[in-house]
Amino acid sequence: MQGHPAVIDALNALLANELSARDQYFIHSRMLEHWGFTKTAARIAHEMEDETAHASALIHRILMLDGTPRMTPAALNVGTDVRSVFANDLAVELSVVTHLREVIALTEHESDFVTRDVLLPMLKDTEEDHAHWLEQQLRLLQALGEHNYLQSQVG
């Protein structure tokens, strides 16, 4: 099925963001594990799996629309400590939320409601799970103090 070129381009831009988020979560999960923060590392690894699923759904839809998935991720912003890991990952998620909303509006404008329906669960997951959890962790770091928060993430 031939999709609208603007929708395919927008999906490819989203794919670059999802691949970037996946890769950033991947390195961050391994860094956190290396630092000994195994609880946080496990959660970030889970986020990496979610981003991989998002990327897979986008690839399937681009192919369905007779497009060619562009597999080049956007630039990464790797943290240097737990706080910057969370902040950098949150920045990626908030950017993805904005971009998803724009692409959803485009799909509605182009009457591509099936693509919209593929994107809506991603938006919900990104807002209600990924971004919310990261915001919560940053608030906990502030409320508990970094030392107490980090101690709770070991083992």
Automatic annotation (TrEMBL):
Residues at which Fe cation 1 binds: E18, E51, H54, E127
Domain Ferritin-like diiron, chain residue ranges per copy: 1-145
UniProt keyword annotations, A-Z: Heme, Ion transport, Iron, Iron storage, Iron transport, Metal-binding, Oxidoreductase, Transport
Catalytic reactions of this protein: Fe(2+)(in) = Fe(2+)(out)
One GO MF term attached to the UniProt entry: heme binding
Gene Ontology CC entries for this record: cytosol
Keyword Heme among UniProt keywords: yes
Source species, domain of life: Bacteria
Record-listed Fe cation 3 binding positions: H46, D50
Binding-site residues for Fe cation 2, renumbered to this chain: E51, E93, E127, H130
Keyword Heme: yes
A Gene Ontology BP annotation from the UniProt entry: iron ion transport
SUPFAM superfamilies reported in the protein's UniProt record: Ferritin-like
NCBIfam families: bfr
Function noted in UniProt: Iron-storage protein.
Family: Belongs to the bacterioferritin family.
PANTHER family: BACTERIOFERRITIN
Protein name: Bacterioferritin
Naturally occurring in which organism (per UniProt): Aquincola agrisoli
